[in-house]
Structures are given as C-alpha cells and as structure tokens.
C-alpha cells in the first residue's frame, strides 16, 4: 500500500501548481492533506471520484483556516471526523479512519511560532495526541499516523540546529516529546528506512530563498506502530514540482 501525506498550504493553490501531477505519477492508495484552507465542496470535487478516491474532510470553524482531509481508494469501515476534542475539531486538525486490517490517522499539529499562547496550545495538543494514541492503538490493528507534526526531531532533520534550538519546532521540550512518543511504540518510517540521510527536508520558509538554498526542516511524518518493522518497502520525500512550502512524504508499506 502506498501512502502520501502533504501539508498543501491551501489545496486549491496546490492543485493549481501541479498537485494532480504528483498524485497521478505516484498513484497512492491513501492521501492525507493538511492545511486545506477550503470548504468541503472545494475539496471533495468530482475529479477525485473519477480517479477512484473517496473523500473525508474535517474543516475548521474559521473559514480558510487549517483543515485536513483524506482521500482513499478503499472505503473505511469507520470514519471519525474531528477525532479528539477542542482544536482537534474546531480547527479541523484530525481524521481517523478504520479499515479491516489497520487504522489511519491524519493529524495537523499546531505551530507555536506566533507566540507564547500558541506554543502553550501546542504543548496541550501534544499531550492530547499522546493520550489519544493509546486509545487508537487498542486492539490488534496496526496504526499509521501521518501529518505535519511541526517538530524537527533530531539535528539531522534541520539545516542549522544550533541557530534554531530556541525556535518553536526545534525546542528541547518538543523534541523530547517526539522521542518519548516514539518510545511508546511508534516508528518514524522515513528515518527507519533512511537512517543516515542528511539534507532532505519537507518544509522551507518562504523567506530568504530558503528552498533554493535547501535550508529546510523535516517536520512532516509517516509514523507507524511496531507492526511495521520489516514491512517498509520505501519512503521518500518528493519536493518537485513545488506545490507548497512543504513537500510530500510517500511510503510504500506492507499491510497484512
């Protein structure tokens, strides 16, 4: 099964810049988008059905803000739109799909870059994700958690770790949370398959020509429960064509 996740920074904008080309080239079975910034009718358009996908969308209360969606070639047994409480629902940050043999959770983690209030909200969100993950992992089905986590985990995941150690997204407490979260039974599929790969990122600021200079951060993830050990065929980050300030993360995994 092939999975694609992307923070599209506005789905209509990403589509106008060549997103369908990526989809057609990769032909993923499951697609997870974050930061769709659009109403349901602008997301779940007829072309997706023509391509064989069924859509599930969670939008924010505030128009044009945040939002996540999943397009799947296989209908799920159950869809929980806005899985979680608070901003998981009100800011459109979470969808959980359950299939016959696995679960798929698309999450858009908040950023804390705008100030102390949003950083505090981010930490609360992280605590809630940890609690919710225990519920999601109950039972025998493996779980894939995908999305923009807004945290670069290790120094290898950011272009200039020393200069960014006091910036949201690379704060010691955030990185420690991600380490602790992985220790509860999750695998970072990209790093599992590419343990020593450097200078490969999934997000670049629009400022100062960062993308051209490859001054980026790896903050978009496909995480899997321990059942995926030895079942990861390939994981890559596709940064061309440029459809967003983020790049797509794509994994090919075995799901029994």
Low-confidence stretches: none
The description of the largest β-sheet is: 6 strands, mixed
- What global shape is seen? globular
> What is the tally of beta strands?
12
Mean pLDDT: 96
The helix content is: 25-40%
Radius of gyration: 17 Å
Straight-line N-to-C gap? 10 Å
Strand order of the largest sheet: 3-4-2-1-12-11
Described by its quaternary structure, the protein is single chain
Question: SSE order in H/E notation?
Answer: EHHEHHEEEHEEHEHHEHEEE
Contiguous helical run count: 9
What structural category characterises the helix and strand content?
alpha+beta
What amount of the residues lies in strands?
15-25%
How would you sum up this structure, described in words?
The chain is of the alpha+beta class and 256 residues long. It contains 9 helices and 12 strands. The chain has helices at residues 11-16, 19-26, 40-43, 46-50, 87-90, 116-136, 161-164, 172-183, 189-193; strands at 2-7, 30-34, 54-58, 68-72, 78-81, 94-98, 103-107, 143-148, 186-188, 220-225, 232-238, 248-253. Strands 3-4-2-1-12-11 form a 6-stranded mixed beta sheet. The chain has a 6-stranded mixed beta sheet with strand order 5-6-7-8-10-9. The chain is globular.
């Amino acid at each position: 099964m092939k999975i694609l996740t992307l923070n599209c920074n506005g789905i209509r904008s990403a589509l106008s810049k060549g997103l369908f080309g990526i989809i057609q080239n990769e032909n993923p079975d499951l697609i997870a988008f974050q930061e769709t910034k659009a109403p349901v009718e602008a997301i779940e358009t007829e072309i997706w059905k023509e391509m064989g996908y069924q859509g599930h969308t969670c939008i924010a209360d505030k128009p044009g803000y945040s939002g996540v969606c999943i397009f799947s070639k296989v209908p799920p047994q159950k869809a929980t739109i806005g899985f979680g409480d608070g901003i998981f629902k009100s800011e459109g940050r979470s969808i959980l799909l359950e299939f016959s043999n696995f679960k798929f959770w698309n999450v858009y983690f908040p950023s804390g870059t705008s100030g102390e209030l949003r950083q505090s909200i981010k930490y609360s969100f992280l605590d809630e994700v940890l609690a919710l993950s225990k519920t999601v992992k109950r039972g025998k089905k493996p779980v894939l958690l995908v999305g923009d986590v807004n945290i670069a985990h290790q120094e290898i995941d950011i272009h200039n770790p020393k200069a960014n150690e006091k910036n949201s997204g690379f704060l010691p407490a955030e990185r420690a949370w991600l380490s602790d979260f992985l220790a509860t039974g999750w695998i970072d599929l990209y790093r599992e398959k590419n343990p020593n790969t450097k200078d490969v990122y999934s997000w670049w600021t629009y400022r100062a020509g960062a993308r051209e200079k490859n001054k980026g951060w790896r903050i978009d993830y496909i995480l899997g429960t321990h059942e995926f050990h030895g079942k990861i065929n390939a994981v890559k980050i596709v940064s061309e064509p440029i459809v967003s300030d983020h790049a797509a993360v794509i994994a090919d995994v075995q799901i029994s």
